[in-house]
Amino acid sequence: MKILITNDDGIYSPGIAALAQVARKFGEVRVVAPDVEQSSMGHAVTHSRPLSYKKSPIDFPDIEAHRVNGTPADCVAMGTHLWKNVDVVLSGINMGPNLGNSMWHSGTLAAAKQAVLLGIKGIALSTPVGKTEPDFQQLENYVEKTLKLLLADDELALFNVNFPPNPEGILWTRQSVRLYDGIIVPGTDPLGRKHYWFTVAPLEPAEEGTDRWAMDHNKVSITPLRLDLTDEVMLQRKTGL
């Protein structure tokens, strides 16, 4: 199996190194990641300037690795161009969860979506981060279990996976679509100039069976996704078909 690995945290992230080492157990691995952090970049692609790639400054033992001056989606496009017949694209392990509505702006998930747009299975993997970095060694066993489960099937598919800090099982889940309050938090920099942080506060609790609920109960969440965003119920209501 030919496995292309990317992320949105950049080539220096410990999450991508941890994922690459586990993925080696399943096939030949290559890493193509952004040269700088591209978090919350969504599915942006670069079209107004040329892209370039260079050898990674970080050593990935026995793995060919490159950095790209572009977005996560760019990295997948470049990686699959440079390395033909890729079987699966893994994106992560992201430093921070990608749950519920955050999927809309996740660069991690966008890389996996880009793979599916190119006809390749895409899997996004994320874990929460706090005051210290995630313990990727603690997650290794469940990362391997999850990949074993998802790579066993050749079907073209898109998966969003989230690992709690101390997993106690794996659940198939649906996306938690709940309202949130977009908050602008004002502040000042050391020179007294105004600046603003954008953040969110959930307005509703997580429903059982959703990705957020699984994480709240220390379960690895696997959410199968699709590219078709059509609201089938509304379409039927509007057209009568």
Characteristics:
241 residues, alpha/beta, 26% helix, two-stranded antiparallel sheet, 9-stranded mixed beta sheet
Integer-rounded radius of gyration = 18 Å
How many individual helices? 6
Distance between the termini: 42 Å
Summing up helix and strand content along with how strands pair, one would put the structural category as alpha/beta
Helix content bin: 25-40%
Order of helices and strands: EHEEEHEHEHEEEEHEH
Strand content: 25-35%
Sheet having the most strands: 9 strands, mixed
Instruction: Give, in spatial order, the strands making up the sheet with the most strands.
Output: 3-4-2-1-5-6-7-11-8
Secondary structure layout:
Elements: E1 2-6, H1 14-23, E2 28-34, E3 53-55, E4 64-68, H2 72-82, E5 88-95, H3 107-117, E6 121-127, H4 136-151, E7 158-162, E8 170-172, E9 180-188, E10 194-202, H5 211-216, E11 220-225, H6 232-239
Parallel strand pairs: 1-2, 1-5, 2-4, 5-6, 6-7, 8-11
Antiparallel strand pairs: 3-4, 7-11, 9-10
Helix pairs in contact: 1-4, 2-3
Task: Explain what this protein looks like in three dimensions.
The chain has helices spanning 14-23, 72-82, 107-117, 136-151, 211-216, 232-239; strands spanning 2-6, 28-34, 53-55, 64-68, 88-95, 121-127, 158-162, 170-172, 180-188, 194-202, 220-225. With 241 residues, the protein is α/β, with parallel strands linked by helices. The strands form two sheets. The chain has a nine-stranded mixed beta sheet, with helices on both faces. Strands 9-10 form a two-stranded antiparallel ribbon. The protein is globular and about 45 Å long.
